[in-house]
Amino acid sequence: MIRKILVAVDGSPLTHSVMRTALDEARCHSAELHIVHVIEAKWTDVEGMSELAIRDLEEEAASLLSSMKAEAEAQGSEATLHLLRGHPGDRIVDCAIDNGADMVVVGSLGKSHVKRMIAGSVSTFVVTHCPITTVVVKQGL
Fold first, then answer.
1. 4-138: which CATH architecture?
2. What pLDDT score was predicted for residue 60?
3. For the whole model, what pTM was predicted?
4. Where are the domains of the chain?
5. Distance (Å, rounded) from C-alpha 118 to C-alpha 30?
6. SS3 of the chain
């Protein structure tokens, strides 16, 4: 039985499709919805990065989460927000486990093999490392 769904959002063009999928699943299962956004550690650990720049990243992230919560509420769903820092894949997996999620919903932008090897793929990481059922919403071609 699915009681809690964790949806990872990153502000990419795919974010609204990922949210719609998570909201559909939450309605279908009468499940609690948790929305997570991870500020990637590489952006906050840059030597010399000003506290002001970090604050801007946090404000952007909080704004994204707030708009996703409003989207959920417009569809009749309550949502719990999680703003985290670190490696996105690790933090999404940890958040899902720590909150007792029964399903994780992530997006995949369909990076090329070369880009995936260089930058990695958060969705691939989550699918590979998360012990919880994971739904991947792919970008339409």
1. 3-Layer(aba) Sandwich (3.40)
2. 94
3. 0.87
4. 4-138
5. 39
6. CCCEEEEECCCCCCHHHHHHHHHHHHHHHCCEEEEEEEEEHHHHCCCCCCHHHHHHHHHHHHHHHHHHHHHHHHCCCCEEEEEEEECHHHHHHHHHHHCCCCEEEEEECCCCHHHHHHHCCHHHHHHHHCCCEEEEEECCC
